[in-house]
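Margin note: ligand = flavin mononucleotide.
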Amino acid sequence: MGVEENSVIENIKTRRSVMEYTDREVSDEDIKTIIDAGIHAPSGFNSQPWFFVVVKNREMMKRMSDHCKPRLLAMLEEATNDAAVEFKKKLEKEEFHIFYDAPVLIIVLGNNADVAVDYDCALCAENMMLAAHSMGIGSCWVGTGCFIQDNPEILEELGITPDYRVIAPIVFGYPVKEPEEPPKKEPEIVWVY
Ligand SMILES: Cc1cc2nc3c(=O)[nH]c(=O)nc-3n(C[C@H](O)[C@H](O)[C@H](O)COP(=O)(O)O)c2cc1C
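Resulting structure:
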């Protein structure tokens, strides 16, 4: 089989970060399928240090967005990088919702006691986004959502204990349209024969 007909590679290459969602709900069955794909990721010493919070409450997501926005804006105050400056302009708009008003947010949390927790959870997150894409469901990892970590009330409402850290807040939903592929750099490779 040539690479062109390989559906796994095709799925990897066509996944996009979706920033516009329809109102269509993602079923709990589909959410379980997505999380199940996540937990099949590799992890250091097979520690599987993840824990998931599924948020389908739009009021809660709006509150989280309002909490996180000013924190990222403050962090980007001195930013000069083009992408960061563009994102800052979006953030400054009153109506901008960091979770894009998506129907569901799944937060991947990692157990702080685990040495490779960031790598493990990132692999889990990518599995989830790829699984969703193969099911026609779009996603976007919203790193900005990590700022909820400094809000004890939100953490309590979400059932997040101090043992766990927010690593990958990811929104899921049906895309309004497939985003175009952003430029991808050619890989720099050193070949050693
Ligand atoms: C760690 C991480 C954090 C990210 N945080 C955000 C974010 O806060 N908001 C956002 O809109 N996109 C966020 N993204 C999505 C990236 O902007 C996106 O992956 C990148 O532009 C490449 O586009 P693609 O995913 O369609 O290939 C994040 C992605 C990663 C991996």
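The chain has a mean pLDDT of 96.
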